[in-house]
């Protein structure tokens, strides 16, 4: 558009501007070319999951072209979705993730509110501490946690190991610090005048939180919820260590341990299970991409 | 804000100075009390399930295998004498550093390409390229395991058309390390892509326009404008990814379980094998504790950067 407008200005400038716009179109073409290459690299595994999930065992072992389905069949899906075992994994995963999301929100929203608005003794230290906890990986804590659970189990007689509900207590250690951290960021960005006005009108702290902070910071809340859900859905190490009986397993562990029997790999079913297990986060991502990305970038950019 | 609350308190006391209920309400209504109760669940969670296990781990590491006797630094000296331990140290460093470098590079390059794409299409590309990060790593690693399968590898099938012989993706030391790093790069690069894309968008266009008027080429623009403007994000993202990659468990566990001959073990997977599978909990705790120094250094730098950002804003 700008080239058109300036075209009339004079022949000497026209040449230069045309070459510049030609440069730009070439840059765009190269960008597309490389993006397609990278997209192939990034999307090969999920697409290959889908391809394999549509094949029968006979076709897989026939070693025909692996990138093409010659006799598409839904038998893998039917088999998994009617198997009680697989549905049990799905159920366990869903229950744990939903409870963890609720627990996380109940812990981190009030804490973030207090840390963002009420300057009290040690509040700055606590905020830093929350951020540091977020940096402690699961692979550092699984052994002491395992031993702790065993000790508590011996001491109180309550079965903790090999029960899916124990994960509901453990997962918040992964989700709460990050959610609190980004909620502090969102809450801190709300103008002070808003809650001061509410306080002057006689609102209690609780009312300020539920009537003003939560509605205003709703995008942040959604981002935190998505984060908590995807983290608890994807967690692999803790359930692998803490649960062993088949009826207590969550999806990632269930697929890797039960569908792989010794040396016999039923790849059609494994890929179907993996795809079904990846589906909930993917669906959430497809519908709430902007919140997902906001949550992702907020961790490092909101300080 | 604080004044309002204090005045409310005074008011209440002035009206009914000797009522017990009022003073209780006063204490409950005080800001620090409210704040304490609001943060209490968080504090309890962190102390009981993060801090306590962390110190408990230190204690566990000083016991013998049956956990009946205090052996001091016995486990540590035992580890120092084992060749596998030094191999794990080396492998963890190779894995984390190589993977983070490639993730950062690919993220940086792809972010530029996505940034070039105009408007609405950019959203679609961004959405597509972030898919690896969204799929739970345990699930996507299974797909890679199948792609690397010794007899049915789809990669080897494709490569055979170019005359490249079957590659033992997970059977050979070099290729196993390569595959593990490849999968980690595949999984983590989209995170860098998103972070860098957000950073790129925050660089004002005028800077680039001014640079092109001054006759700067693309390399000079990147070196003198993009990189300095993005320095902080690059630092935080890299350090953060270093921690996560260093502590990685899922990918190696599913892809190779540490094999062939422990040549791909990382701290996390080896700690799992020693501590849980061979049920030598003290030694496993000891192994995972060796991650702490590196994590601590990275965490200190991140904290410095985050605080700096906070002060700037």
Automatic annotation (TrEMBL), chain A:
Membrane topology: Multi-pass membrane protein
Entry keyword Transmembrane: yes
InterPro entries: BP-dep_ABC_trans_perm, MetI-like, MetI-like_sf
Domain ABC transmembrane type-1: 90-288
Keywords: Cell membrane, Membrane, Transmembrane, Transmembrane helix, Transport
Principal localisation: membrane
GO terms under biological process: transmembrane transport
Tagged with keyword Membrane: yes
Compartmental location: Cell membrane
Coiled-coil region: none
Gene Ontology CC: plasma membrane
Stretches that traverse the bilayer: 30-51, 89-114, 120-143, 164-188, 208-229, 267-288
Family per similarity comment: Belongs to the binding-protein-dependent transport system permease family.
Protein name per Swiss-Prot or TrEMBL: ABC transporter permease
From TrEMBL, chain B:
One GO BP: transmembrane transport
Primary residence: membrane
TM regions (residue ranges): 34-55, 94-115, 127-147, 174-198, 233-255, 281-303
Subcellular location: Cell membrane
GO cellular component, one term: plasma membrane
Ranges where the ABC transmembrane type-1 domain occurs: 89-304
Tree of life domain: Bacteria
Membrane topology per record: Multi-pass membrane protein
Record keywords: Cell membrane, Membrane, Transmembrane, Transmembrane helix, Transport
Family that this chain belongs to: Belongs to the binding-protein-dependent transport system permease family.
Descriptive protein name: ABC transporter permease
Species this protein is from: Bradyrhizobium betae
